[in-house]
Design goal:
The structure holds two protein chains of two kinds.
Chain A lengths: L15 H7 L14 H6 L2 E2 L2 E6 L2 E6 L3 E3 L2 E4 L5 E5 L2 E8 H22 L5 H14 L1 H5 L4 E9 L4 E7 L5 E4 L2 E4 L3 H11 L6 H18 L15 E6 L2 E4 L2 H18 L5
Antiparallel strand pairs in A: 1-4, 1-7, 2-3, 2-11, 3-12, 4-5, 6-7, 7-8, 8-9, 9-10, 12-13
Chain B lengths: L8 H17 L4 E6 L2 E7 L8 E5 L2 E7 L1 H21 L7 H18 L6 E7 L8 E5 L5 E4 L2 E4 L3 H8 L9 H12 L10 E7 L7 E3 L2 H8 L1
Helix pairs in contact in B: 4-5, 5-6
The chains are: A alpha+beta, B alpha+beta.
């Protein structure tokens, strides 16, 4: 392979997917036939992810379960990723295209930063992600829906910000919290009732732990804490110091303490 | 039909080399040192925006001297090649050797076939887990590659800078000591200050992206 060299009029600039496209390597779903219900059951899906703001930034979290129809296909899937040093992205939907979208998004941000010498603004990153979701629309129409959430620390405004998306690439910045995936209804309600913008990192982690627990409790496609195998949801906090994933130990302790609260309340139907 | 005058190939190569060397000699110099903390790249560069040193990949950095638009084009081509390779294979499959060969081919090609050779010299640096695994590939305008050991000097005044750096044991130095050595080698009469310097480092014991550009206040602290 020789060094890529483009004539001025087709230079992809800092756009990494444009570069990949020039090698003909971007996936093309336009020739895929419309999926039937049984085809869709064979596609691995990932579910519930949430993000909410707190005093110093944002937390972003997701469960670990992936399903194919009624089967559990993976118990320790990762749905929460660092997009770059100051932002994180979490995905729900068809796992294959979703993971590819994350990989492309991470590379897009890194590539831009290296070519231009400075990173994109947080808004610019959210916009890039929205264009990728929109690019996936033909696949979404065939049943391979990918709906991410995006959260980051805006260093120009000195606060955490969160975004939700829809399948058409619609980009919606929310004030306090966002959620996506099959258990998002339950998770969002828990966060809505418990959220305070001035909460601490620990309070925010407890809140998303409770939200994911509740989603797993009522949605069969969302995985709860799995002490048997030592698998817990991934929770990351993003502050002015950057993206930082909470240790498995911290998360397992937070879950154990929440479960203890339920037990002492003796709320067996909760 | 007009026949072009016959020019012996020796003469043509010599003319082209002279042309490129003159272009490079006009620019300021750059020094790179392998040390205990990693690799430090130091350039005399009064501009904050026209950068000579840049990140290419996780453990690889780029430095160029000479004509800005030419080495910047090479820098961008290198980032693209590295990112494409990492995307198609894996992040572990991107290495400095491959990149240096690609640069050498491109610059060699331009030197013999294009209207004019590139008036640049570039360096591809890659930091390893131990200092023995560090690599410095120095690629010249004609595509010739040198695998430098321990340090490298590029640019107009490279011979003088090389003299200042040679014979020093840098393997135990931290970034501060290595920066002082580089600045001493680059400076002529008065020592260069932070705002005349551009500094980038590849940190040895960092996971993932090891490259970091140092801001003025950090350069001042390291020089103190």
């Amino acid at each position: 392979m020789s060094l890529p060299n483009f004539p001025l009029h087709d230079d992809p600039g800092p756009n990494f997917s444009g570069l990949v496209d020039s090698y003909g390597l971007l996936p093309d779903y336009s020739t895929v036939n419309t999926a039937t219900a049984s085809d869709l059951a064979a596609i691995t899906h990932g579910t519930t992810v949430v993000a909410c703001t707190f005093a110093d930034g944002v937390v972003i979290a997701g469960d670990r379960r992936a399903t194919s129809g009624n089967l559990i296909s993976h118990r320790n899937m990762r749905k929460v990723f660092a997009a770059d040093r100051w932002s994180g992205v979490a995905i729900a939907g068809a796992a294959g295209p979703a993971v590819e979208m994350i990989k492309m998004f991470q590379l897009q941000l890194e590539h831009y930063e290296k070519i231009e010498g400075s990173p994109l603004s947080l808004e610019g990153k959210a916009n890039q992600l929205s264009m990728m979701v929109r690019g996936n629309l033909p696949a979404a129409m065939q049943g391979m829906v990918v709906v991410p959430i995006f959260a980051g620390f805006d260093r120009r405004r000195d606060r955490g910000r969160v975004w939700a998306f829809d399948v058409t690439g619609g980009r919606y910045e929310e004030m306090n919290y966002v959620a996506s995936g099959s258990g998002s209804l339950h998770a969002r309600t828990v966060i809505k009732l418990g959220h305070r913008p001035d909460q601490s990192r620990e309070e925010a982690i407890d809140l998303v732990v409770k939200a994911l627990y509740t989603a797993a409790d009522d949605d069969s496609a969302t995985g709860g804490p799995d002490p048997l195998r030592g698998i817990y949801p991934i929770v990351a906090a993003i502050t002015s110091d950057g993206y930082d994933e909470a240790s498995e130990e911290e998360i397992s302790t937070r879950f154990a303490s929440y479960i203890e609260t339920i037990r002492t309340n003796d709320s067996r139907e909760a | 039909m007009n026949m072009p005058f016959y020019v012996p190939p020796e003469q043509m190569m010599r003319d082209r080399a002279d042309f490129a060397q003159k272009g490079i000699a006009r620019g300021r110099s750059l020094a790179t040192i392998e040390c205990a903390d990693g690799i430090i790249l130091v350039a005399e560069n009064p501009s904050r925006n026209l950068r000579k040193i840049s990140e290419i990949y996780d453990r690889i950095a780029f430095a160029g001297v000479g004509k800005y638009n030419e080495y910047d084009q090479l820098r961008i081509a290198g980032i693209r090649a590295a990112d494409m390779r990492g995307y198609t294979y894996s992040r572990d499959d991107v290495d400095a050797q491959t990149l240096a060969n690609q640069y050498a081919q491109m610059m060699g090609q331009v030197f013999t076939h294009d209207v004019k050779p590139m008036e640049v010299e570039i360096l591809v640096a890659s930091v390893g887990n131990a200092i023995e695994d560090d690599r410095l590939f120095h690629i010249r305008y004609d595509g010739s590659v040198t695998d430098e050991d321990g340090f490298a000097a590029l640019g107009g005044d490279a011979d003088r800078v090389r003299e200042g750096l040679s014979g020093k044991d840098t393997s135990e130095m931290d970034f501060s000591a290595a920066l002082k050595l580089a600045v001493e080698a680059l400076s002529t009469d008065t020592p260069l200050t932070a705002d005349q310097l551009e500094v980038g480092v590849l940190e040895r014991h960092v996971e993932g992206r090891c490259y970091r550009r140092l801001e003025n206040d950090e350069i001042t602290t390291l020089l103190a």
